[in-house]
Amino acid sequence: MSPETRQKLMDSLNKGAAYLKSQQKPDGTWENHPGVTAMVAAALLHQPGARTQAAQTTAKTLEYLRSLAKPDGGIYVKDIPHYITATAVMALVAAGDPKDTPIIEKGRRYLAEHILDEGEGVSPSNKFYGGLGWGGTSDGGRADIISLEYGLRAMKEAGVAANDAAWQKTVQFLQRTQNIGELNDQGFPGDDGGFMYYPGYSQAGETRSYGAATYAGIMSYAWANVKKDDRRVQVVLKWVRNNYTVDENPGLGQKTVYYYYMVFAKALQAIGEPVIVDAKGVSHNWREDLGRKLLSLQHPEGYWVNTVPDEMQDNKVLVTTFTMMAIEAALQN
């Protein structure tokens, strides 16, 4: 990344943070939503060079998140407990306060224990085995790649050991969600290496691979300690080369494109891919490409927002948070 783009992105983050601060409620929350609140806190606390200001802005926020801790280890209100727990754990880890260690440890155990397995009445032959949904697993409920990635990211950041049994279970779900030919035991015809939303269903139609799910899959493999030279990772990187773009969410166009930007940056940073050579043999410094794209999309008031409203992408606070997380990942070398 050029020094000029890096400086512009640092300035862009400052504008985004100022916008988020202007939208904060007096009790420290955002959008009357604990998950959004936790995501904003994590983004602010990870902003380079702004730790003191972020700590001041999120002081009440963190107290609010701590108040959501439940006896079962989760951190949530009644809805979507897995997602809220995952985002709250990430925010508390980012804050780095030693007093939060017990809450974080209980939260990571809660997430690990709710990965779908025999404990929830889900057998290894079930296509959702090893997955995680937004919440509610008592009936062996549905899991998906996006929910799982949030959970795994929180577990990884909270320090779940590399040899924990939960990781291997999740790999089984990941493999079944990937279009990887004979390595997927569900009999799906796809073999381009990309990911669908959950085994047998894609938001792009049928079982087609698409951008956001694929980068969430790459990240999930990284969190689950699957090495870069593993065939499953090498095949998905081939999909990345064949579908490289910062102009849309491949397969979905502008739908959920800002979530795509976040997982795109986090995934490529996590596996250490500084340059992507696309299907035409053109080399791309993805950090530079993404940085310039996001700079062009920021509004003068400091926020980002999608023109396609699906899945809260018309929410300026959430979309600005996704974008700041993407920039923060791109700024890491």
Features:
333 residues, two-stranded antiparallel ribbon, 2% strand
Walk me through this protein's architecture.
It is a single chain. This protein starts with a helix and ends with a helix. The protein has 333 residues and is an all-alpha fold. It is built from 13 helices and 2 strands, in the order H-H-H-H-H-H-H-H-H-H-H-E-E-H-H. Strands 1-2 form a two-stranded antiparallel sheet. The mean pLDDT is 95. It is 51% helix and 2% strand.
Unreliable stretches: none
Mean pLDDT: 95
What is the H/E string? HHHHHHHHHHHEEHH
Sum up the overall morphology in one term. globular
Number of helices: 13
- Count of individual beta strands: 2
State the helical fraction. Answer: 40-55%
What summary fits the major beta sheet?
Answer: 2 strands, antiparallel
Strand content: under 5%
- End-to-end Cα distance, whole Å, is 9 Å
Structural class: mainly alpha
- Order of the strands making up the biggest sheet: 1-2
Rg over alpha carbons: 19 Å
